[in-house]
Each structure stands twice: as structure tokens, then as C-alpha cells.
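Need C-alpha cells for this chain, all 257 residues.
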Amino acid sequence: MAYRFAQERQDYADFATGRVFQSIPGHTAFPVRLASEIFQRCVALYQQRGGRVPCILYDPCCGGASLLCAATYLHWSALEQVIGSDIDPQALQLAGRNLSLLTLSGLEARTAQLQIMRVGYGKPSHAEALESAQRLHSRLSELLSTHSVTTRIFLADATQQCAIQEHLGDLKADIVMMDIPYGLHSSWQVPDRQQTEQLEPIQQVLAAMLPVLSPQAIVAVAASRQQKFAYAGYRRLDHFTIGKRRIVFLTPDKTLS
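Here are the C-alpha cells for all 257 residues:
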């Protein structure tokens, strides 16, 4: 069975894009159940290596941040900070709007927007979205009574180590989750073509991540099951395939340091 943690089929509609959360037009959102499974596997591996929660989660190719938002809402207790970056300014604007829904003020503003749409258009989809927003508000109020999770986004090319380090500074990511571009709707944006001839983009991203990872960090890479890539500087801890995706779990190889 591919699912080790998220074994029960649940209704994840409230956390999926298309209702309260928004998606980039023409892009397929990451499945919520799969995001939950990957995150829980990351946490288990991270704790096995001595890591402690709550931890810092980072997605260097965040797009609209649907993966980050789903993981945070479902596993709030394991997180203290959520960070996203992307090379696409428009995607990052959407990520900011979605991540704002991890705050009561952001969620209330979105709820008011959905209320206007429901009154103005009267579509069943708007009514369903409004109900989802109300349920999320109740859930978020309970979560915030335990602790807050801070969010942060910045514009950066994930293949450029200096750009990542400039924004993160001394901060170290404990868990990195990324859905690397592989389908018809997504493609890499790498300005330096000469550099891509030396290393594949995913190899560049993994190399750029090494300086910003904590010693116990786990990096989860979701890609096409046909896509193969090298991961120099890392050890593979686990992997599994589901549908058209293959997910690989890596950790920095301390023997090389």
C-alpha cells in the first residue's frame, strides 16, 4: 500500500484548491491526501534522525503554495514556520494570498469575498466554498489556541544557491517538500542555459538546498515516475510510487562533510 500514514480516505475538499484556496490557471494542484502522506513520512524520518517538532517546512518551488497550505492545516502541531519561494512573481502573489489563509484576518477577508460572490452569482459552488471557509475558520481558531505558525515567501530561482541563502540567512529548513515540474502544465524556468547543460535543474536545486538544511533535515522530491535524477550530497532514505508520481526522501550525506 502506497499510503502508510494517510490510509483512510477522507474528504479533503476544504483544503483543496478551487474553493477557498486558489490555484494557478492551467496548473494541476497537488493532491491533498498525498501532501499529507509525504509530510508525515518526512516528520517520521526527521524524528528518527533526532529532529524535534515543531519544525520549519520549506518549498523552493512553491507555485501557489497549495502543498504548503494543506500540510500546515492538517499537521499544524508539527510546524512552527512555513516558507515558500518561486521564480515566478505571479505564482508567488497567489502563494501569498493562499498562505494568508493560515491567519484569521486573511481567512475572514476571503470569507467576505466568497459571501459577495455567493450573493452576486448564486452559484452552488460559491455556497460550497463559503461553507468550507466557515469550517476552516473554526478549525483555524482551535489551532491558533495552541500556537501560531509563521509564514514567509520570497522570489528566488531555486537552482541558485546564493539567492536562497540571501533570503534565508542563518535559518535552516528541517523539512523540504517540492513537486518538481514534470507535466504539460509546468516547466523549469532557468535563466542560465549554459549551467543547465552541466547539471539537470533538479540537481541544481538539490545542490542549492544543502547549505540551508538542518543536520537532520529531510528532503522530499515528487516527480514523474519515469524521471530519474542523481542526488549527489544526499543519501536516499525511502521512496514510493503512486499513480504517475514517484516520491524520493533524501537526507544530507554527513560522510561527505
